[in-house]
Records
---
Amino acid sequence: MAGVPAALAAHDRIRRSTDLPLFYGKKDKDTITPYLLIDRLEKAATIATWDTDERKCTEFSLILRDQAIVWWKSLVKTNPDFNRNNWDAVKAQFLEAYEPKYTARTTCTSFQELFQKSTETVHDFFLRVTESLEKMTDAKPPQLLVVRAPPAGLDAAEGLRIKKQGLDDMERYFLQQLFTAGLREDIRIKVMEAGLDNLQESLKLAREVEVIHNDRRHHKANISAINEEGQPDIPEDEAEQDRLIEAIHAHRARNGKPKDKKKKGPCWYCKGPNHMQQNCRKRMAAKAPMVNKDGTPMKSHTSAIEETKPTDQSHSEEDYYKMASCSTIHHLNY
């Protein structure tokens, strides 16, 4: 009984590893491409030890739905001699029906579309380039694996291994070139300037540059919002942009919390709240001089008022009281 939990855990792990997605034969419903589905099934067959073609074909038929089931039944109807238990034959028919065959024309069309879209991340673009290249290389003719003019004494298996290694290196180099060439210009320039000869390092750098540029665009959007409120335009130079961003952050840090304003009043003349005596309506209506805190008239201030009072009556009473108050503003209560 001690081995039961371990056996159940192993069974559950295998079940999850071999849990294949359903295939409907409709682009709007399928969550995986036909090419990747075949790859997933063959890996699942290795994990679950589906050793026979019949078992692989049975498992494959069980994940088909809707139009894909109709296609499965049509294999025998169109060709009575077709063996639906021959995995290689079923796989070939499935890919021919649902995966466009990679010809020279489709390859060129696919490569023309290998540029990073405005809404596409570096990672997603890399996966799209990888998938396109894999489809092309999987369709390469068998003659490419022939070792021409092998050196004397070289074992055939060793020669084939070396040839495959060379082809793999060339495919990685080609993948790096396609990936770099298709990146958005602002990212591509930085990657090309680095002059990296390693695909993984190029991908890593492109992701880092993307993060930096996305952050800069985010700051630009914030600045644009400020511009609508009358702030200066964004400079074209990136260094100037960075300095402007830092200045805005520093300004916000200094002025993030508005200072409390001092409350006005009470008025020394009428003792009322929320105003000072130079604006006191009661005092101005009574044409009374301003007073000290103890209520005594400001004689020097009164003289200043008389001196500044205009004779042409072009100013209001409040205006010349204010003009007079400027000379002795340090005496007033705030």
---
Amino acid sequence: MIRRLVLLAVLGAAVAGCGSTTHGAETTTTTQVPPHMMSLTVFEVVDGALHARTAHVQQTTAVAGAALGALGLDAPVTIAGGTATVALDSATPEQTAEIVYTLTQFPTVQRVDVGGRTGLTRADVASFVPAILIETPAANAEVPSSIAVSGSASVFEATLVVELRQGGRVVATHSVTASEGAPGRGTFSTTLLAPNAGAATVAAYAPSAADGTPQHEQDVPVIVKP
């Protein structure tokens, strides 16, 4: 089983006790976060590609260690001089991608030493990054009605469409230009306004140059707060 990894983004309190919210075709499971817990964004490799999701961990100031714990790794991590050193003798390629991509989200981390490899950056795990990667919000995050969306993409002419879907229909859509087009990789950001509270999906895709059909689509389920 591929283990999960955690990013730095501390979100606010997450949703109410075990259950599910259903709006149209969208079903999002919700879990109350007790006062002693906090929400973090988690990156894991699924079907060969990195995806972000929300995880809940014990309140702590040692977020890097909490990230590894949420990944299921009992490995000390230290950060000094821009390098995060993870005390693992070995790591699978998937674990390495998760660890590197996650820990370099911390403002104090530019490089990662893990599994006998040193000075790893995101460029070293690029093969695990999908054409479009939504970093914020993470899957199953609780978000305000004004939803900040950001990530990175490697798509034709740097052109993307970012949508919000609720109840089986598109309720907000923006055309977005990334900072760089394929074969390079650029960053993108925008804000979507949700008309209703409840389950929703943030989607990002590159429109086909031929007929506008979605390509490289990534869908992220979220919960819009009342």
